UniProtKB/TrEMBL annotation:
Residues 80-92 have a biased composition (Acidic residues). SMART domains: PDZ. The lineage of its organism: Bacteria, Bacillati, Bacillota, Clostridia, Lachnospirales. This is Serine protease. GO terms for molecular function: serine-type endopeptidase activity. Belongs to the peptidase S1C family. Residues 323-394 form the PDZ domain.
Length: 433
């Protein structure tokens, strides 16, 4: 047995075992750095491409989002009497050919109760319009001489101009809501909600507020409605109107009266606003809306124009003159401006001073687009981007057709000792702050 073991040991002594050891490959630092550099370059290129794509696509994405979330507000514009197309001869002949109808009327003596019923119906119109009127309160935190904190309140009236599935839009006085900490809107049913500024115009002094619909309860929704904006260009002396708003310290007050004058004008940058004067009592603190007997808003009573309320009576700014501005602000857009103060050349001035029919420039704002373009005081604007300009309404319509940063080709007549000269001025439409 031992002989076999020794024999096996002798046999194994003739073999050498090979042990293989795997050695790790040394790191090539050059290749690692090259790979890292390539990956870094690819990452930068990818980031630049992604960033560029996002920037290019963002405006279109925003348009789609805004189109879905915030419907565009459109307010039909009114035409002045001298812009309404006259009837054709054919229509006149047809009207003449229609025989006149004989109407037999019976005279009826009105009683006191009839007058009371009529007054009640008139005030029902005002009560319905009150659903579109709100009280706007601006709150500002202040401190007194002893560093004690208190909250100051500023109140005015606003009018609801649009209600959609996303927001309620309200037009109000800008002076009340500037430099304040919060805004509270109180509806006609005494329900309150916080509001925020959507857009404002410093020149006109009006602001559009928005109230997100998610803040509005069903109870509040039932008590409000958007106002119907009427045509104030057809308002004449003697027209029966009502003032709805804040008068003599009373909110949601209703007062009836008549228009005493409708030809007054107040000049602001790039616009002339018609003033509707009434015999309705009021003061410098009055605010609200002027409505006709259809319940349509025909004027805004703004504290910014309190000087118009002469003799303790109420005056309002024509709503037809403000519609284009309200539409612009309601859509969150800046108002296009050129920076001139002007007025329509009257027929009397046209004949007396031999001035061309158009818009007379009474002043040019410093560093405004018009001044940079070369428009001067005393010029008469006769064309705007090829369109004939006969009055301030034509000028405003042509201006609102221009996009911001768009070019406005203004043709003016300039008068001097040697006569008149036609000059072309090229201006860039801006949003004046």
């Amino acid at each position: 047995m031992s002989d076999k073991i020794e024999k096996n040991q002798d046999d194994t002594e003739g073999f050498d075992f090979i042990r293989e050891k795997i050695k790790e490959k040394p790191i090539n630092r050059k290749k690692v750095l090259i790979g890292f550099g390539l990956n870094l370059i690819f990452a930068i290129v990818f980031g630049l491409v992604a960033c560029t794509t996002f920037l290019l696509a963002k405006p279109y994405i925003n348009k789609l989002i805004n189109k879905t979330e915030n419907p565009t507000i459109s307010i039909p514009q009114d035409k002045m009497d001298d812009e309404i197309t006259e009837e054709t001869p054919d229509q006149t002949e047809q009207e003449k050919s229609v025989p006149e109808q004989v109407i037999i009327t019976n005279t009826q003596q009105l009683q006191t109760v009839d007058y009371e019923n009529l007054q009640s119906e008139i005030y029902d119109i005002g009560a319905e319009a009150n659903r579109s009127v709100v009280t706007v309160t601006g709150l500002r935190k202040e401190t007194d001489l002893f560093d004690a904190a208190y909250q100051n309140e500023f109140k005015t009236t606003g009018v609801i101009i649009a209600v959609n599935q996303h927001e309620i839009l309200i037009v109000t006085d800008k002076s009340i809501v500037e430099n304040i900490d919060s805004i509270i809107v109180t509806f006609s049913n005494d329900k309150c909600v916080n509001a925020e500024i959507k857009k404002y115009d410093t020149t006109l002094g009006i602001t559009v507020l928005r109230v997100p619909m998610e803040k509005i309860s069903e109870e509040v929704k039932e008590g409000i409605k958007a106002a119907t904006l009427g045509n104030s260009y057809v308002v004449r002396q003697g027209t029966t109107v009502m003032a709805v708003g804040n008068f003599c310290g009373t909110t949601h007050a209703i007062a009836q009266g008549n228009v005493t004058a409708s030809s007054g004008k107040v000049s602001v940058v790039d616009a002339n606003l018609t003033v509707l004067s009434t015999n309705i009592p009021g003061d410098s603190k009055s605010s609200g809306v002027l409505i006709n007997m259809k319940g349509e808003v025909i004027g805004l009573i703004l504290k910014n124009y309190s000087a118009l309320n002469s003799g303790n009576t109420t005056a309002a700014v024509s709503i037809s003159d403000l519609k284009a501005y309200i539409e612009c602000l309601s859509n969150g857009q800046d108002v296009p401006r050129l920076g001139i103060s002007a007025l329509t050349v009257s027929e009397e001035a046209e004949h007396q001073y031999q001035v061309t029919k158009g818009v007379y420039v009474s002043d040019v704002a410093l560093d405004s687009p018009s001044m940079i373009a070369g428009v001067q005081r005393g010029d008469v604007i006769i064309k705007f981007n090829g369109e004939k300009i006969l009055n301030m309404n034509h000028y405003k319509e042509a201006l609102f057709k221009c996009p911001l940063e768009g070019q406005a080709k203004i043709t003016v007549m300039r008068y001097g000792p040697e006569g008149s000269t036609q000059i072309e001025c090229n201006a860039i439409v801006k949003a004046l702050k």
